[in-house]
Amino acid sequence: MKVPEPIRVVFDTFPLRTYAPVLDKSTQNDEHIFFFSKKGDSSTTKESECFHLGVHKVNKSLVMDKMVFLPSDPVGLADCLILCHRHNLLLPRDTKDEKSVHSITELSYLASPDNELPILLEGKDAVASKIVSSGEISKSVSNNYFSKNSQAFFINDYLDSLVDLWIFILLVDIPQSHNPCSTYSSLFYQDDQVKQSDSLLYLTTLKLIGEMANWNFFKKRYSYLFQQEKSIYSTISRINKSNFLKAFAVCNETAFEKVYFEKLMDFERFLSMVMKYLEQEQESEAKTIIEIKLASFCFAFSSLKCQNTHIERLMKKYPEVIEFSERIISRY
């Protein structure tokens, strides 16, 4: 019996069963998805199991003599390197290396249940079935590597607290730089249509800045700095002003900068201490994770695309630390 032509066309156009697209992982074929490369023949996960690390932004970076794709923020970078270490993977790159099923994926912070990235999407056969939050990732790393070494535990705890310093940099240093919008765009995902409108980009960036204060419970810990919140109407009326911090007016600027400078001094003291610790400490999994986290923060701090900032001046004083961070990242 012949199927009537109109019905045949409908079924050809809308079949009863569809198949997911097969991604060509031989190159980075999606501008927002970056597949890890396999390291040799070994892997710690089954082929059907996969994970995708959702981060704010992925940038192409030259590290030592390798061109690789790296998350723009220090926490995402640290989680990325830890995943490489745990699962015997290499960082995403443009080369024709054999790609794994695991990837780094650029996401808007709005894609996260708590508006905070990174998140880890775990599943099977390219279907995500579990979302692991940023806080859960950090807790898992701490439990797995630092439960038996008190000194390493406290160093790791301080490294995790550097998220606060990162947020201070985002809220104090970058707004005072030459082109804040451009810097934020290099660090955080923005929809292409948003980028086409300066006013829309400005407003979405202001919204992003407002959300930063909630990350890692930052605003709760420093609630005394957030006493003078202004309405969105005040924000819009200042849309052409260059100083983002004043435009958004979420804090006492003088007090905010004072705490930021204290954090910078603490970090500088910590740098000399932790570098000595790493020189003397024997090789271990805990030491490797500390190296990865320290390298991630130092690399992110020194790679910011804004000049004449407090963090830039501090990092320039420690070229050996920058060299250390690149050396650690180049392992992967």
TrEMBL record:
Domain of life of the source: Eukaryota
InterPro entries the UniProt entry points to: SAM35
Protein name per its UniProtKB record: SAM complex subunit
